[in-house]
Amino acid sequence: MKIGFIGLGNMGAPMAANLAAAGHAVTGFDTVAAPPAGVAQAASAAEAAAGAEVVITMLPNGAILKAVAGDVIPAMQLGAVLLDCSTVDVASAREVAAMAEAAGLGALDAPVSGGVGGAAAGTLTFMVGGGAAAFATAKPLFEVMGQKAVHCGPAGNGQAAKICNNMILGVTMIATCEAFALADKLGLDRQAMYDVVSTSSGQSWSMTTYCPAPGVGPKSPSDNGYRPGFAADLMLKDLRLSQAAAEGADADTPMGALAAALYARFVEEEDGAGRDFSAMLPRFETRTRES
Ligand code: NAD
């Protein structure tokens, strides 16, 4: 397929490289980053999009996505698909899909989970919102870039699935970290804590797969000095998106709101910026009820 790829950062570059390695003709554009091996360089987003059957975007936020969509939609050929893989707010995803569809294009919002490692290995999971025909067009590309693509319904539903998942993840990571810190203070060995909770009703992905305690459970960023992994800054971004969506939908999400406030404090006032989101555990270790 002829593919335009816009946003060649930590995630976009390996995704574009995998598509090129699978034999697709990929032309890329980024305002800063150079294209990876196998990907041709365009002089602008519109140039990357011209003549492409699918235009993929992997950008930092909804405002940038809307600006890029404004540039590429007029350049795209009728019937082509605009496939946004960024994590953005549900409202921006729905606006961009409406703009694309009004111009005779297909549109999908398909945020990912799996991180930079999953992007490089081609094992991402895509949560996809948009029409069935556009999903069918993009399916072979999802199969190259990932191992699973779930069609979640109409435009915006991919972003909805992503932020609901990550709201659960933020809350369970905090709960797991505060429980480890409490267990420490009660004199409970971390390995014993893991052995019980990972096979009991308190278990979650945060405990069993991504354990925040170093030396316990499978290898995770805690075993690597809390280098990300999944940065606390990105968790904060996703928690804020979930709170914006909850406000828009008048949904009561008290735990999500608390998690967003705690990650904001960790990243913006404490030492959380640039650390993995599981570094909440050393944060709790040093604290008392008063601090
Ligand atoms: P990144 O900052 O490394 O990459 C974004 C790229 O977009 C940068 O190279 C930047 O130069 C480029 N860019 C910005 N404005 C542009 C424009 N107007 N035109 C063209 N290029 C432009 O970010 P990333 O880690 O690759 O993340 C991309 C998206 O994926 C984000 O929405 C993020 O939330 C999401 N995501 C990231 C991860 C992760 O672990 N990094 C995991 C899941 C989802």
Task: Set down the secondary structure blueprint.
Blueprint lengths: L1 E5 L5 H10 L3 E5 L10 E2 L3 H5 L4 E4 L4 H11 L8 E4 L5 H13 L3 E4 L2 E2 L1 H7 L2 E7 L1 H14 E8 L3 H29 L4 H8 L7 H4 L23 H18 L4 H15 L11 H6 L6
Parallel strand pairs: 1-2, 1-4, 2-3, 4-5, 5-6, 8-9
Antiparallel strand pairs: 6-8, 7-8
Helix pairs in contact: 1-5, 3-4, 7-10, 7-11, 10-11
Nicotinamide-adenine-dinucleotide binds next to α3, α5 and α10.
Features:
binds nicotinamide-adenine-dinucleotide; 14% strand; nine-stranded mixed sheet; elongated
Give a brief rundown of this model.
This protein has helices at residues 12-21, 45-49, 62-72, 90-102, 115-121, 132-145, 157-185, 190-197, 205-208, 232-249, 254-268, 280-285, and strands at residues 2-6, 25-29, 40-41, 54-57, 81-84, 106-109, 112-113, 124-130, 146-153. With 291 residues, it is an alpha/beta fold. Helix 1 (12-21) links the parallel strand 1 (2-6) and strand 2.
